[in-house]
Each structure stands twice: as C-alpha cells, then as structure tokens.
C-alpha cells in the first residue's frame, strides 16, 4: 500500500541537495523539455506557475510561453538555489505547498507540476487547488510517476496479476523519520479520474523518458536517445509505456 504521510515543507530541508540529483541526467531533463514544448506549442499564456518546481529547472522554459511565471516551491533551500538559476530573469519565487497555493481563484492561465506526484500518495487536495487557481479554460500540465510502465505491465501480465489501481510505494530504503516524505508510483487511469473529479479534463498525454536506463545511456549517445524520444513520446503514450507520463488538462 502507498505511504500516506503528510507533506510538509521541512521534509525537503534535510540536507538533500536536489540540484545534484540532476547530475548525469541530461537526457531526462531534455526529454521533459521536449514534452513541455510539444504540449504547449503555438500557445501563449498570461500568468503561469510551476508548482513544486524545485530550483527553477523548468521555469525559464515556461517563461517563453507565458508573460509572468511564478516558481511555487515549499522548500526554502530550493528557493535559495533558484536565486542563481533564475538570476537576471523576472520569474517570481514564492514559498508554498501544492495543497495550499497562495493564488487567487482563477488567477493563473497555466500550471505545471512536474516530478511532484511521486511524493503525493493521495493528490485530491493538490488537484482541487490547481483547479481553483486556474482560470476557466486554463491549462495544466501534470507529470505522473507511472507504475504501469512497460516493465511492470509485462511482469504483472506474466504473473497473472492486474495492475494496482492505488498508488504503490517505491521506497527502497527504510524511512528515516515517521513523517518522511512519500515515494510512490501511480496508476495513470486512476489519476486521470481524480483530475476529472477536480474539474480538469484530459486533452492529451505523452510518454516521457522512454529510454531511462543506465545501460542504454552507456550504449547510445544522448543525441540518438533524444531523436528516439521525440519520435516515441506520442506513440508510446497510448499504452502508458514510459516511467513518466505527462498529462495536458483543461479546466472546464
């Protein structure tokens, strides 16, 4: 069963340097940029926010699609790191949790939330907040850590077991504290249903980081991996192939 710990900002303040996580993950970073550009191509927005955006990794990209961008991040340490990343830009930095967004009703035209869902076993409060702050017709891009990726789907089929509909804990080491942050993968269909209940309707989806494998990274140059990534993101989304599914949603 999934972990149900409460999310609090200080869980991100325990000596972990998230900027280091992205060392040697150029392929994954580029794959996510490709996905966002594809989902937002030809569109422009007034006001946008990247929810749980860490040190601002995606904010500069979002600024090319929106007149105003806010990095909405719960961890003070991440916001401190973002000062250097976002130096010289007009991107606003604000400390807030995804389930308690400090925006007015309908204030935003675009919301992104990437690499956050794997910390949220039960996302109803977060989805309700995203829906609340979006203007009617506004767009949300939400990335979901996908339990039903190709390897898991193949394994479950071989064992004759259905994929779980509930989130699944993927923590590999014992939690160091009772309120340690959760690490889960989700059932995409379940998440889409939860989003619909919050008033967010699925428009399209992409399968992202389809070649996320240390073995592949050692075999193929990044340029080749990204060529394959571009060619497969839409095609493989039909079967939720990859470890990361990007959902594009619209508020009714």
UniProtKB/TrEMBL annotation:
Any Pfam family matching the protein: Methyltransf_11
Looking up InterPro entries in the UniProt record yields: Methyltransf_11 (IPR013216), SAM-dependent_MTases_sf (IPR029063)
Q: Which residues form the Methyltransferase type domain?
A: 50-142
Query: What keyword terms does UniProt attach to this protein?
Result: Ubiquinone
In Swiss-Prot or TrEMBL terms, this protein is called Ubiquinone/menaquinone biosynthesis C-methylase UbiE
Q: What is the lineage of its organism?
A: Bacteria, Bacillati, Actinomycetota, Actinomycetes, Propionibacteriales
